[in-house]
Amino acid sequence: MSPQFATTDVASYMQQLGREARRTSSQLRRATSAAKNAALAAMAARLAASREALLTANESDLERARASGLDAALLDRLALSEARIEAMIEGLHQVAALPDPVGAIDDLRTRPSGIQVGQMRVPLGVIGIIYESRPNVTLEAASLCLKSGNACILRGGSEARESNAAIAECIVAGLADAGLPESAVQVVAMTDRAAVGELIAMPEYVDVIIPRGGKSLIERVARDAKVPVIKHLDGVCHVYIDASADRDKALAIAVNAKTQRYGTCNTLETLLIDAPVAGELLPELAAAYAEHRVELRGCERTRELLPGIKAAEEADWSAEYLAPVLAIRVVDGIDAAIAHIERYGSHHTDAIVSESYTLSRRFLAEVDSSSVMVNASTRFADGFEYGLGAEIGISTNKLHARGPVGLEGLTTRKYIVLGDGQIRE
Amino acid sequence: MSPQFATTDVASYMQQLGREARRTSSQLRRATSAAKNAALAAMAARLAASREALLTANESDLERARASGLDAALLDRLALSEARIEAMIEGLHQVAALPDPVGAIDDLRTRPSGIQVGQMRVPLGVIGIIYESRPNVTLEAASLCLKSGNACILRGGSEARESNAAIAECIVAGLADAGLPESAVQVVAMTDRAAVGELIAMPEYVDVIIPRGGKSLIERVARDAKVPVIKHLDGVCHVYIDASADRDKALAIAVNAKTQRYGTCNTLETLLIDAPVAGELLPELAAAYAEHRVELRGCERTRELLPGIKAAEEADWSAEYLAPVLAIRVVDGIDAAIAHIERYGSHHTDAIVSESYTLSRRFLAEVDSSSVMVNASTRFADGFEYGLGAEIGISTNKLHARGPVGLEGLTTRKYIVLGDGQIRE
């Protein structure tokens, strides 16, 4: 629980958690959906009965955070409230209501040898999750890992340690209520930073690491991990308005993708506009963005049409502003748009606005991003909007899970073979 | 081409290959199946016209290898022959005949917002393949990467360098014949070992590394790589003969899984036998194994039934013999069998022989291996037997591709969203 532990203590503590998680994972693999759902419901009941304790623990974290001068945005992420606790409880019921991915068998086919071959969806095993100040991630992560049949080790931010400990008590009690092993969910009690270093370097005990938080955390974890990392890096998202675009759709999408929320990874950062329609649309767009106080930064051709705005510099094309700032570039057709996205984009989410069948198909096929859209706002790139029912994060990896990651991303598939005594000749 | 290059030369050479591969990968992403198949056919024609040149280049590699004292097994892997060249040509036609995985769209569904969301199968991008002495891997790897729309960088063993260069000439000529970029397949000409170090540490240019070869190569690559590695480690495979097993199936499977080939990763290494049938079956099995000159190493209970055999030591339970040696253990029922597999196995391929519906289902669900079988020989764990049509390797990873990896394992899926102007409220 405290930084006076020597590094070897941290190492042996984390090894102990790892061994326990690995052991438990083989029990969880065989847990029924009914048992997992009962545990989720029991956790919800425990949370509901612990509102006071949760708020008290959280207040203590908040006091410490205020004393150490945390900024308002971080304090807001750290804070629990009656409403946030309600949302956590509701979240548990939602996860319980999702279909269990474990055990589904696809494509069972008979081969010429007579064996039947298929693939069965199974848990990954042990998942390590590393996150920052939001204590509700503790519950979200625990519920998704449990529902997908995985044991998990959760390492939250030290600023949320009392809140996380209080939530962990509810989780563990809920598991016990439902007869599942308490070590299905283990919250790392040591706030020593070395604990993260250990967690990401135990391939014998941990199958995958999911870091959730700022870019520097994710980069550090990805660089040092000895196990696969499902990671989310930049979201430099584009909307390309093609000459054939419907004017109303173009305006609505370009404005919504930028202004519906500024701090999210699927927010528009660079608007590309086809030269033939730039003269008509840019002034209208500029007026709409002005209402939202979005600062525009344009290429030379954009500035000819919108003389007042700032010039975009090279760095603007690859900037993830996460703020009311938008880069705009006039391009000559879809090839130039795709080339721009390929050069400067982050392969997260990119959209075309177009009425052309052929260009829409080309954009879908050729843009190499985790989400590629036609005539829809980039803000739809989200596990809930996609119907995954829940989201542990958005992956910018190409392998395993790409884009929003739901329960299925926490599982894998093994081959199963059903025979009648077949041998190989 | 030679070890006198300084390390910086190797680095800039590999960076150059990487940049070129990345550039080419966006052209390959949009290549039609027809163009890719035409290139495969053209490569086959080029190979057919180059038999002499291939055999001459190979003879020169073989001479050098003999002079440096390579053993007979390695010389055999290195050697080309008319028959092996025929097999390479035939392999190209087989890959051309496989369905193209790229562009398939799954599960396009309409969401409450009105957007349609689906997943489109797309190439990974750039694949680096590192292998040892067999020159035909050059062609196999190139054909599978091309068919799946990926650019590739191939690094073969230095002992095969002239053979690989001759094969590379046919590949590049075939690509040009079909109008595809020659840099779709790049064979690393530098035999400097540092080239491997560079290849596995260029995440900006290489999306995944597939090492094919001995365990030490794979472990080294996996340890040092800065990009995901699709790897194949141990194959410590089990057959568990349950008390309910059909006698004939049990004998056939246990003998076939061990003796059909000794050096393959899906070969049986430890036989587990349920106590009630051990007395009846073990003597019959021992007689069958004796015919194949398989050395048996047994637990105490096995040795009571087969007094002449050697005692298995602890290390035998996790040994991958790749040889006519078999460890045998008498266990008490399926729980003990699964516990043994979990403790000592390598999660590769494990089979139960049983007539029990319930125990078969339990074994399938609970054994956490890339292939889990009922009443079939472990030797079936193979891309061709599973109907993948081709196999780039067998993955012991849990994420992305698990088990035999065919064309689909060289692709990923991106989300596509089709809208009519939808924005998020």
Automatic annotation (TrEMBL), chains A, B:
<dbReference type="InterPro" id="IPR015590">
    <property type="entry name" value="Aldehyde_DH_dom"/>
</dbReference>
<dbReference type="InterPro" id="IPR000965">
    <property type="entry name" value="GPR_dom"/>
</dbReference>
<comment type="function">
    <text>Catalyzes the NADPH-dependent reduction of L-glutamate 5-phosphate into L-glutamate 5-semialdehyde and phosphate. The product spontaneously undergoes cyclization to form 1-pyrroline-5-carboxylate.</text>
</comment>
<comment type="similarity">
    <text>Belongs to the gamma-glutamyl phosphate reductase family.</text>
</comment>
<keyword id="KW-0560">Oxidoreductase</keyword>
<dbReference type="InterPro" id="IPR016162">
    <property type="entry name" value="Ald_DH_N"/>
</dbReference>
<keyword id="KW-0028">Amino-acid biosynthesis</keyword>
<keyword id="KW-0521">NADP</keyword>
<dbReference type="Pfam" id="PF00171">
    <property type="entry name" value="Aldedh"/>
</dbReference>
<dbReference type="InterPro" id="IPR016161">
    <property type="entry name" value="Ald_DH/histidinol_DH"/>
</dbReference>
<keyword id="KW-0963">Cytoplasm</keyword>
<comment type="pathway">
    <text>Amino-acid biosynthesis; L-proline biosynthesis; L-glutamate 5-semialdehyde from L-glutamate: step 2/2.</text>
</comment>
<protein>
    <recommendedName>
        <fullName>Gamma-glutamyl phosphate reductase</fullName>
        <ecNumber>1.2.1.41</ecNumber>
    </recommendedName>
</protein>
<dbReference type="InterPro" id="IPR016163">
    <property type="entry name" value="Ald_DH_C"/>
</dbReference>
<dbReference type="InterPro" id="IPR012134">
    <property type="entry name" value="Glu-5-SA_DH"/>
</dbReference>
<dbReference type="InterPro" id="IPR020593">
    <property type="entry name" value="G-glutamylP_reductase_CS"/>
</dbReference>
<feature type="domain" description="Aldehyde dehydrogenase">
    <location>
        <begin position="16"/>
        <end position="295"/>
    </location>
</feature>
<keyword id="KW-0641">Proline biosynthesis</keyword>
